[in-house]
């Protein structure tokens, strides 16, 4: 009875909200590119921020990109980091990866290996290959997390399987030298071949 009516109304609301967000994003992209109107980064940023406020990961990500543009009058490292953080938490793995890079380098945020590892891991769990590689290398060195070469090899395997040639190369070297894994020339050759 009432639950079905409530669910139907809620589903209609979600569809309407998603359509509205898509309209806002489309308008922001037109303003950013100058399609059908004058190029207006200020307007684009306002619209992306509106979409971000409505929990659009794309709106937050694109806002962060504008704030990251060193040639833009809106260049603002802390605001870029804040918007990447919002996009990451909404579910944008690439934003998690970029935020991890910011923590690793101290760009717009206080440098923190622990936070970098946290955001690399978040992106890695969403199959972002470069984030998996970066996380594995941190674990290999004991940066931000306990050193564990065997665990690093497992994460590098995931990254290699996701198509990251650098991870495959690292794995080839690990198996060649027996570094964190049992020395295995066959596996070494296999991973080196995947790196090409």
Q: TL;DR?
A:
This protein has 196 residues and is mainly α. The protein has helices spanning 2-33, 41-53, 57-68, 77-90, 93-105, 113-125, 129-141, 149-161, 165-177, 185-194. The protein starts with a helix and ends with a helix.
Q: What do these coordinates show?
A:
This protein has 196 residues and is mainly α. 74% of the residues lie in helices and 0% in strands. The chain has ten helices and no strands. The longest helix has 32 residues. 39% of the residues are buried. The model has no long low-confidence stretch (mean pLDDT 92).
Uncertain regions spanning at least 5 consecutive residues:
none
| H and E string | HHHHHHHHHH
Number of helices: 10
- Beta strands, count: 0
Structural class: mainly alpha
Q: Roughly what is the average pLDDT, rounded to an integer?
A: 92
- Please give the largest β-sheet: none
N/C terminus separation:
60 Å
Helix content: over 70%
């Amino acid at each position: 009875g009432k639950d079905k009516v409530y669910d139907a109304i809620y589903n209609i609301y979600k569809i309407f909200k998603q359509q509205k967000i898509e309209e806002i994003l489309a308008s922001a992209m037109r303003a950013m590119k100058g399609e059908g109107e004058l190029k207006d980064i200020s307007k684009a940023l306002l619209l992306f921020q509106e979409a971000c406020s409505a929990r659009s990961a794309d709106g937050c990500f694109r806002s962060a990109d504008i704030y990251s543009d060193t040639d833009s009058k809106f260049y603002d490292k802390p605001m870029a980091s804040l918007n990447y953080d919002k996009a990451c938490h909404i579910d944008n793995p690439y934003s998690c990866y970029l935020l991890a890079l910011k923590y690793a380098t101290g760009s717009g945020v206080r440098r923190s290996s622990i936070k970098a590892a946290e955001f690399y891991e978040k992106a890695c769990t969403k199959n972002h290959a470069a984030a998996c590689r970066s996380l594995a290398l941190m674990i290999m060195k004991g940066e931000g997390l306990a050193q564990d070469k065997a665990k690093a090899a497992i994460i590098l395997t995931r990254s290699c399987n996701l198509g990251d040639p650098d991870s495959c190369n690292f794995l080839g070297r690990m198996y060649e030298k027996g570094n964190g894994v049992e020395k295995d020339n066959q596996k070494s050759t296999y991973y080196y071949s995947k790196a090409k």
